[in-house]
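In keeping with the milestone schedule agreed at the kick-off meeting, the structural modelling team has produced records for the first pair of proteins. Each record is given below as a sequence line and a structure-token line. The laboratory manager (R.T.) confirmed that both were archived under the project's standard naming scheme.
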Amino acid sequence: MKYTLRKALKSDMPKVLNLIRELATFEKEPRAVVIDVNDLEKDGYGKNPLFKCMVAEANKKIIGIALMYYRYSTWKGKVLHLEDLIVNHKYRGNGIGAALLNEVVKFGKNEGVKRITWEVLDWNTPAIEFYKNRGVTIMDEWKVVHLTEQGIDNYLAKIDENI
């Protein structure tokens, strides 16, 4: 299969959002996506972009994305976080995910990051094997901690109660 990789354009964000929604459905969270195209355009292409995105394209159709942003490690310094690596289910198995991941790693190296991080669901065996086959370290002893929007409100309410 012939495809190209390139930096995402602002005009690509509707198609990027479609892939994000596809991933949410795959991860059994179809209603969890609350962002819209305007959010992606503003957050990725405003004065201070919050993320960078690469796309895989075939026949003028976006079939995969890698969305990433910088973090800072108090131990290592500049870190790149890969938020999502998504390939449309119809195109998986054609090397597109590997090509996108390769580009993320090259980008990180060129940017001088000390580490590249991402998460994978413990039940997503194909993704885990995909990453293991590339020699990455999957750190089972670390737990991802999330505070949702509602959780933030509850947390702050508890602080207020204790004042």
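The second protein of the pair:
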Amino acid sequence: MWGAITGIIAEIKRCEAAEATVAAVAMAYVCIDTMAYLSMPAGQTSQTRSDFIAWVDTYLKGHPDQPYEYKGIDVYAARCSLLHAFSAEADLHRRDQSVRKFGYHDGGLHAFNPDVSPNLVIIGTASFLNDVVIAVESFIKACQQDTELRQLVESRLPAVYQTMPFPQLGQVSSGEGEPNP
């Protein structure tokens, strides 16, 4: 069951290795959504904005040398803007001017200077993707140490999309020694 989580991380890494940076970032947001779903309070059937924000605030940490430390509300708004509008601005940004917009570059160091632009962070995608992987590792470690959390997550893992090997056309045998066309 835990392969569903490692599968998401593998997808992020495949996208990044293929230099499909936007796809990797989008998968990182899908990953965080999934972790929010897995860790939402017992009795809840779907995750909310608050669950996403709480997961980010608990697990997603940047390197101390970064000029910007992730805030759940900023990451949530960035997720919405990328996944829903393929832009840097979401409705949340328009309603709350304190929520920071994310721009992206393919390097490691984030760029943030509140004296120049207090509501814009340029996210180094290499660092962001690495930080998401480390956050998931921290979440898994928390599950190992907290029996209640582990049981909650394990009860939800079967609902998470999982891939499995499937023979390609031409590789499936008809049972008579000949591959099917």
